[in-house]
Design goal:
By secondary structure, the chain is an alpha+beta fold. Helix content is 53%, strand content 22%. Strands 5, 6, 13, 14 and 15 form a five-stranded antiparallel β-sheet that branches. A four-stranded antiparallel β-sheet has the order 2-3-1-4. A two-stranded antiparallel ribbon has the order 7-12.
Length: 459
């Protein structure tokens, strides 16, 4: 007894089976992660070594070749690209697909440590990092406020960002632009020479006076209390009154005697501007296994919550770029294609076969078959991305072809006045091989493409 006979003779079993599959498909769909593209990008490890004052030729002979030779035996390396620049060497190790980046970086760090002694003394310690397109931010934000620039920056850094970082799936937030408060001690060289103090003395004096550390504890028969030495500066005047030295008894030298202390702004290293208005830019990255669409939704809700609680400050978060928009549009497009395909096939069945039953069968069979595919995708660890959605669109066409051919042949047997069960069995068995051939034609076309793609990505 084949599956067709089982379906005809025991319809309740098939209904229960497909109900379970649809349930699993729904669970799989709700748990699938959203990505714009699948993770087929080649992992890369970058080693940057700074050699101050060196020419590219010297960097090449003294640093680049040494580092490149150390990485030549690294397991999982596909090819290495070396760039010798003025004052710096950059070695890019492109890894093979499927290589464990974390383990490779540990091995690479060990190899680099072994050859560090062969590098010139003036060379800084090599810096290693991994690069992946999946590390790109999913949301870019421009934040503005009516508050003073320094106050808004500090509140954003101390209050709002911790709230965002606590959201599920948020990995890292980078701040661009803004004005960060900085207490600046501007030393007057002439006054410093006049009072015979060095810059090192000024720095050490301020450091000693700004200590905040535990100093033991005081115990009695009843209580035990911790003692802490608190010396943090509370205002600028406290810094000005720090004693640097006392060259003569009764003649101390203070910071105010050799420097001007101001409440200033840290020198900016980046500028964020949106629609001609300066603000603070935020680049938000998600965790590797997080659902980008869900993370984006949580972030937008948190922004609205913060804006509502700080209306008097005029705080406004504008999302300038959201990479999940394209993913959502792609998903919606596939859903629309599915609905159109099912409706059009049902309409064709109704017009040409003049059978409302066949139209209803299509309305149920095709969506049911597609939904069950989500369960398999979930179990295999796939994501909803442009490639998998493209495959779903292709499946719609295959299902439409098979459904049309099989139902038309069953209808032909019904027109021959056969009993319904017999017509269904004969129609399916008669056309089964042809329907399978139609499907295998698509398989034959796309399997070579899959093989060539695997070859390109793995070699």
């Amino acid at each position: 007894m084949n599956i067709t006979e089982i379906s005809i003779n025991r319809p309740s079993l098939i209904i229960v089976l497909f109900s379970v599959l649809v349930l699993l498909g729904y669970i799989g769909f709700t748990n699938l992660s959203y990505e714009l593209m699948p993770d087929f990008n080649q992992p890369v490890v970058v080693i940057k070594t700074v050699y101050p004052g060196a020419s590219p030729e010297e960097v090449e002979s003294s640093v680049s070749k040494t580092v490149e030779d150390a990485l030549s035996n690294l397991e999982g390396v596909d090819f290495i690209v070396t760039k010798s620049l003025p004052n710096a060497s950059v070695v890019i190790a492109n890894l093979k697909y499927g290589t464990d980046v974390n383990k490779t970086m540990q091995d690479a760090q060990r190899y680099i440590d072994n050859v560090s002694k062969d590098l010139p003394d003036e060379v800084y310690s090599p810096e290693m990092s991994s690069v992946s397109p999946n590390d790109l931010p999913i949301i870019s934000v421009s934040a503005v406020s009516n508050l003073p620039a320094t106050e808004f920056y500090q509140r954003l850094k101390d209050d709002y960002l911790p709230q965002l970082q606590q959201l599920k799936g948020v990995a890292e937030i980078t701040i661009l632009g803004g004005e960060e408060r900085e207490i600046q001690v501007k030393v007057d060289r002439a006054k410093m020479q006049l009072n015979k103090v060095s810059l090192l003395q000024i720095v050490e004096a301020i450091k000693r006076s700004g200590l905040d550390l535990p100093a033991g504890k005081v115990e009695s028969d009843q209580v035990s209390s911790s003692v802490r030495l608190t010396g943090k500066f509370e205002n600028i005047e406290a810094i000005k009154n720090v004693q640097i030295a006392m060259p003569m008894p009764g003649s101390p030298i203070y910071v105010r005697d050799v420097a001007n202390v101001v409440d200033g702004i840290k020198e900016p290293t980046s500028i964020s501007r949106y629609n001609g208005k300066n603000g603070i830019g935020l680049l938000i990255k998600k965790q590797g296994d997080a659902n980008a669409v869900d993370v984006s939704g949580l972030i937008e809700e948190k922004f609205e919550e913060i804006e509502q609680k700080n209306k008097e400050s005029g705080i406004d978060f504008t999302i300038t770029d959201n990479s999940t928009d394209n993913t959502i549009e792609a998903v919606n497009s596939v859903v629309v294609d599915l609905i159109l395909a099912v409706l059009l096939v049902s309409l064709v069945m109704l017009l040409f076969l003049r059978s409302l039953r066949n139209s209803l069968i299509v309305l149920i069979a095709i969506p049911t078959s597609l939904v069950t595919a989500f369960a398999v995708m979930w179990l295999l660890g796939y994501t909803l991305n442009l490639m998998t959605l493209l495959a779903m669109s292709l499946i719609i066409g295959i299902l439409v072809d098979d459904a049309t051919v099989v139902l038309e042949n069953i209808q032909r047997h019904l027109d021959m006045k056969k009993e319904k069960r017999v017509a269904a069995l004969d129609g399916r068995m008669e056309i089964g091989f042809s329907a399978l051939s139609i499907t295998l034609v698509d398989v034959v076309v796309f399997v070579p493409i899959l093989g060539s793609s695997s070859y390109i990505y793995s070699d």
